[in-house]
Amino acid sequence: xxxxxxxxxxxxxxxxxxxxxxxxxxxxxxxxxxxxxxxxxxxxxxxxxxxxxxxxxxxxxxxxxxxxxxxxxxxxxxxxxxxxxxxxxxxxxxxxxxxxxxxxxxxxxxxxxxxxxxxxxxxxxxxxxxxxxxxxxxxxxxxxxxxxxxxxxxxxxxxxxxxxxxxxxxxxxxxxxxxxxxxxxxxxxxxxxxxxxxxxxxxxxxxxxxxxxxxxxxxxxxxxxxxxxxxxxxxxxxxxxxxxxxxxxxxx
Length: 252
Ligand SMILES: Nc1ncnc2c1ncn2[C@@H]1O[C@H](COP(=O)(O)OP(=O)(O)O)[C@@H](O)[C@H]1O
Ligand SMILES: [Mg+2]
Hints:
By secondary structure, the protein is α/β, with parallel strands linked by helices. It has helices at residues 43-51, 73-78, 96-101, 112-117, 119-139, 155-166, 187-200, 212-218, 236-241, 243-251, and strands at 3-14, 17-28, 32-36, 58-63, 66-67, 81-83, 173-177, 204-208, 221-226, 229-234.
């Protein structure tokens, strides 16, 4: 089991609020870790620190053995750091396929002069992106709705498009922020299968989710966060059976 993402001694505070307090966390290839904890625990902030939305005050983050904590967001993405967002951030009027094809991170270093003078290269890369998008849509069970406007999908399908977009880079590590929030019905099985398939392909996955059954069914291991700290790590069933943790989860 090889470590893909290693977080060591990560600290972050906003004024008086401690969102990360000496966090150590390792995500390994092929494994799905469930990150649980009450609202405000710092789960989304941890994803923001890892993906580079804001810098940490202290600590290191390595991806496949290389420091990424000083890199810009798009550089981390280019190295295979993928994430979804709690609020979806799709383009509602674009087709599912186009939602996967747009986005600056898919064209790292694209320069204006290239667009003007290297039409062949731009076309080739666009064809590559399109092939990749169709492949990702196949993997996420969305091929049949490739031409559908994102706005016309069910909410569950929209959540899957969020995951599909995250897979457009060569993912090494996938961070999913509440993929099941607001989702009902058979999307449950589809999301489980998609995330398992991604992990099985060697990606290190971390899922934040309040749907405890979803986390228990999906994850190899759970991590419990509270007030910016990792308080416990172990089988999800053990964490949710721990009275001390359930009190923290529901008591505030
Ligand atoms: N950019 C920010 N500026 C100030 N406070 C923030 C910022 N981002 C998050 N916080 C605060 O950090 C705490 C943890 O929030 P968050 O990471 O969203 O928790 P969770 O995802 O576990 O519900 C909250 O108190 C939140 O208000
Ligand atoms: Mg959150």
